[in-house]
Fold:
Amino acid sequence: MNHALRLFLALTLLSTCFSPGAEAPLKRYLYMTSPDGAQQQGRSGTGILIFDIDDGHKFVKRIEMPIFEETLRGFTGCTKTGKLYYSTHQGTLGCFDPETGKTVWESKFKMGCDRSCITPDGKRIYVPTGWWFQTEDSGFIVVDASNGEKIDHIKVGKQAHNSIASLDGRFVYLGTQTKLTQFRAEDGHPVQEISPVGESGVFPYCVDSKNHWAFVCLGKHVGVDVVDLKEGRVTSRLFATDPKTGRKIKHRTHGAGMTPDETELWISDQAGKKLFVFDITKRPPEAKGHVDLSMGGHGWITFSLDGRYAYSHTPDIFDVKTKKKVATLKTPDGKEFASSKFIEVQMRSGKVVRISNEFGLGRVGFGQ
Structure:
């Protein structure tokens, strides 16, 4: 190749890389909060810690959030608004902008703020009053996502705890004691109540993309109730078993998530330091094994949007396909970091492109 041709090719390549029309690379980050209001393990100051998913989940930076001294109960986001929303144990609900790194608004609610959810259209935030709130007023505070102002109060049942907005924008779900309630997302009108579900208390759950199946954690064993949302009933109870004895494990489950492709269910045995995996393409679901965790804690499960990585309440990150541990979350000083409040934020040229959900939701048909 002569010199002139080499120069021409080099210039062509440079013009392609730096032309105004060239699309900037997509960056994927894991946003996590500290301190976690539900566990002591792995805490690191007060703020949002950001990790680079595409660079081995290495620490990127910390954003100090003094209000987080109230300890975090929930952390959710919305692609439509490009914002993240946090709730604290002392009743603060706030909106954070990942593009500017600043708080947009904050509101205070006396009844409390637990794991909130926001409708995909970015209009309404449904805020559970908290598992600690046990009066007849317990339920949802409905908030205008644009400014944090209260627009409704829906009484549902004692100990309103975890909430999910379906990806299709049709429904919102809420757990209260041993009841799962489905609401119409646009106005909060109740659609159905399913009770009893779970063994005791109010624990996490997940829902598939068609609003057909929900998996609700048990309170006295490691396992879940399998709920048919179309029929409005529990169809079966699924238990994990001790790998050594084959017996049911007699303590609560706190964490259930399905892979985005809806082929596997992962449930948390935080006391036993394990995540159990089930094949949910079969009825009843079949056990596939487990992975070991480096610490106990609150218990939680979700996945990266592409379904490659599994995240829990520990510093451990697992490859979903191989079930191998592939990374450990660490702060700049080398300390292992953990929280049960985390969410994926995808950005291009500093602008939000997509935000995941903190629950392990089925995403078939929604670009998993």
Remarks:
- DSSP finds one helix and 29 strands in the chain.
